[in-house]
Specification:
homotrimer; alpha/beta; Rossmann fold; five-stranded parallel β-sheet; four-stranded parallel β-sheet; 12 helices; 9 strands; about 40% helix
């Protein structure tokens, strides 16, 4: 089957998911991001790569933090950015999603950054663009339902490579609510594609997908066993709506078994790094002593995230 | 009476309505828009004509689509754009409309794009600017109550001229809820001003203004009779609030009599074009087979709309 | 105690309050603003001083007017501006204020413009930036609770200096709800720091802070007595929530005793100027005949406010 993310030359046409993305494309994105981390430290944090391009932030689900990171990335590349919060817009007037997209295409959009509560919405848009012959417009998935959040996965890979240099000798644990996390899926695909030999998932049975082993990971229900000698701990955010559900006893109980404390972290390698996609629930999935401690690389993740988004946008715009 | 849209030299000072706008000014706007359609296809879609100018989008009534088209047009001309959603702003603090305007003038605004639920609000603002001697500030009406939506009328004229080259041999039908449509009024004025010899309006008696014939149009209640041999079909959007009202039996009934189907469209000339201001109610005023068919020029209307708004802004800024 | 607004060289690091701000720094801000008032009258109202800088408007409390003035000021200095309305954002996801700030720092912010309902929030942010060693990021207080609104105070001083040239011979009256006004506190500190020999506050006992005399002002409960021979009348806005409270009989009653009318204004010097921070409650604290009359400099205040905000931003960015 044709990979809808790649054009006929095998170049990145859209960024929809890390699943199925070739290793050399992932590596090219990470390599492209490196100089962009330096741009952010310059006096004038501005490059002309997207000058005159129109980037539409299409947020069908509100997320100020994610929207902000894409807005900054696009503006640092000199793009014109239009923020559209579509929940309060035309769709309430009875217009379909694809009519909205057709209209924005007719306004000569160059890029859509799409956040949607429904898994697959960015795919639908990408397919439609292909069907109407608008290969000049690119889609970036900024989170779709439970499915994927590929720029988060990429910035996580950037962070690991930054601190650990190489993926091929690492043991990495992903901890928490794997079942409902679009971040976790993107991470696991990225880690296995980049050659991490040992990927572990740690969580209660109720928060792990059925047959998760088929993704090529080792499953642990006991966090202490799972953290033994890992190089990287990737914590997940526990969604608020899960905390009241039947799947979990209480936030306090969750913290006891699956919250990352200094105590549990001691089981990892001495130079282990701790990651979190944010926003953190302190005292639920992570203890403040860890979040603010020397192993945490949570804020560098945010910084690298801007550079990675700039890289994705500039690669797409070049095709 | 002095035309408040023109300055003493007879140049465009504000764009408030197409009614009373001289033919040569309409033509000049359409001519100016032509090269702007090419800008949108360039690699760098940016011109410096409004560089350093402050354009305020004053939306007293929310309309993401219209706001977006003006925002894109202004940004492609390099203006600084400030979006103000005034419903949630100072007017709730008891400040009057004109106090708000005075304040924005004092911030050295150059242009106000005004959307308001009350007919006449943009006039009131334009009169006030004249009264306080701020001829350097220009107003564009982006839709006021049931009154006017002149940039929509202008982009419609641009579209007709693009496909039909000349207005003087055309038969044009405007179909649907003429009574409540600010778009229809702008269209009819523009068509007659530009010399279209035969303008028809088609709709049920309950949705036509009293004495509509005085605008210089022929009235049809039977859509099939009205569409006979027309060159251009301009569909109107049926507002949701009408669908539940006493004026109409049901959306299905409306579609039966006044919805544009392939069947009815066959009565028009073979090269007829179909227009719609959007967003469309598919299956109410227009069938999807028509909306997505070869006669429809609904998406080119959107593209031309950006160019026409750039033309209006650049003409105003030059005076 | 170290003044958190100044860096080790005694230069402005943050603008949090006028209280404790040295006179030479206030004067330097006013002096820097002078040429910026001319920028606003140029054809191209744009300077490159903040090019490539990221200015975040962090509005934890909505205020379209104040946000707009900072947005315009930043854009005229060529900054990239990101508007964040935080009430609807991450803090609802359980993230703390300082986690939000940490994240924005990691996105390489250069400046935070902070509006918050809690007094002291901008201080908390400034202290945190110092604690994490981010002296490259600057905070501007755009209004915190009842505490301070320093750019308002500065633009008021700019306005007085513009019309009266010198502070040292003036009598200035601040009138209305001193108790709940963050504007009044900023004004009084600025006036006394700049050497105004006679600062008066006029209001009912219920709307004056206890021991207000200790700020170095003369207290008047009778407005006519207080206005006698003043050079400057600074009216305050009566907050809507006060009008229904127990502190005041009714808006009509307030107007009778403390509303500025032409009649009362005649007691001031013939060349007195009348100021108001806006938005005005016409007929409550000020009569329209005064607001729109020849003594009012209320709209010039707005114009100077943009220049003063540009001055503050450019001074901070230079350190």
């Amino acid at each position: 089957m044709h990979n809808p993310q790649l054009n006929r030359n095998g170049e990145l046409q859209h960024l929809l998911t890390i699943e199925g993305l070739p290793r050399d494309i992932i590596t090219a994105i990470l390599d492209t991001a490196v100089p962009f981390t330096e741009v952010a430290e310059r006096e004038v944090k501005k490059l002309p790569l997207l000058r005159g391009k129109s980037v539409f932030n299409l947020f069908f689900e509100s997320s100020t933090r994610t929207r902000t990171t894409f807005e900054i990335a696009a503006k640092r590349l000199s793009a014109d950015v239009i923020n559209l919060n579509i929940t309060t817009s035309s769709t309430t007037k009875g217009e379909t999603l694809l009519d909205t997209i057709d209209n924005l295409c007719a306004m000569q959009a160059d890029m859509f950054v799409v956040r949607h509560a429904s898994s697959g919405a960015p795919y639908l848009i990408a397919q439609h663009l292909s069907a109407i012959g608008r290969d000049d417009i690119h889609v970036i998935n900024a989170g779709d339902g439970r499915h994927a959040h590929p720029t988060q996965g990429l910035l996580d890979m950037y962070t690991i490579r930054h601190y650990k240099k190489d993926f091929t000798g690492l043991t990495v644990a992903v901890v928490g609510d794997i079942l409902h996390s679009r971040v976790a899926r993107s991470q696991i695909h990225a880690l296995t594609t980049l050659g991490v030999p040992e990927v572990r998932v740690i969580g209660p049975k109720t928060l792990l997908p059925a047959e998760v082993e088929k993704l090529g990971v080792h499953v642990f229900h006991d966090m202490r066993a799972g953290l033994k000698d890992v190089d990287v701990v990737m914590m997940l955010r526990l969604q608020n709506e899960r905390m009241q559900g039947a799947l979990l006893p209480s936030p306090q109980e969750f913290f006891k078994y699956y919250g990352l404390t200094l105590d549990k972290l001691e089981l990892a390698k001495p130079d282990a790094i701790v990651m979190h996609p944010g926003p953190m629930n302190r005292g639920v999935e992570i203890d403040s002593a860890v979040a603010d401690g020397p192993h945490a690389v949570i804020l560098p993740q945010v910084t690298f995230g801007i550079a990675v988004r700039m890289a994705v946008m500039s690669i797409l715009a070049a095709h």
